[in-house]
Amino acid sequence: MAEGLLAGETALVTGGASGIGRGIAARFAREGARVLLADVDAARGEDAAAAIRAAGGDARFVVADLSTREGTADLLARALEALGSVSILVHSASPRRREADTVAAVSDETWDRMLAVNLRAGFQLGRDTAAHMRSRGIRGRILIMTSLHAGSPRNLPHYSASKAGQTMVMKELARAYGPHGIRVNAIAPGAIPGGGFDASATGVERLAACTSLGRLGTPDDIAGMALALVSERFSAYVTGTTVVVDGGLALHNWIEPAGAG
Fold first, then answer.
1. What is the pTM of this model?
2. Catalytic residues
3. Among 81, 90, 156, 212, which residue's Cβ finds the most Cβ atoms within 10 Å?
4. What are the tens digits of pLDDT across the range 72-110?
């Protein structure tokens, strides 16, 4: 049963239409937060918000294209209009990655979009939301979804580079805004089907066998840790860190053999 850990909070969740973002938005709403989901997928986003409302939560959805600076700035303005303020930001949006986009094959356009949504929008939205929190005297929390690939290259250069950059953006934001009571952290999920990860194309049985707990993860597995990190009850003294939630996947040699593909 929900304990109302986030009663009175207002949360903006990017990538909220599916996968990890959707799971986090639903969990936050169950804990009493008013939630605004943002995504480029209007149909799935509206469905996610409707499901939260059907379960008794307070959720709205807006279409947001974070591949442009204007779209990112517009999202924060719309969030403030819808919620009045933002006390929690979760940046989970990421373009769907394809296993075929290797070092030898990834296009400039695919590279640019991945870094725009993951890295540039993550910094822009984090910085501007933190400035809003500071101006309102909000002891806010920012949470960024990074990846095991931030430290383990696997021939997806655009994705790995963007996630490594997100890790440093998180640390820079935590350092800059910690003195104002704003905590910034990251989660590095393991293999979580849905959203940007296509389990059908990745070898589910092989990945599960390489995971100490013997299974792939679920959005709820990540949402529980997300709740803990934004909760002042459990993590009031935690900032500038990345928490790995991977079922032990990183303990195994799960990276493909070397090669430029």
1. 0.93
2. 159
3. 90
4. 999 999 999 999 999 999 999 999 888 888 999 999 999
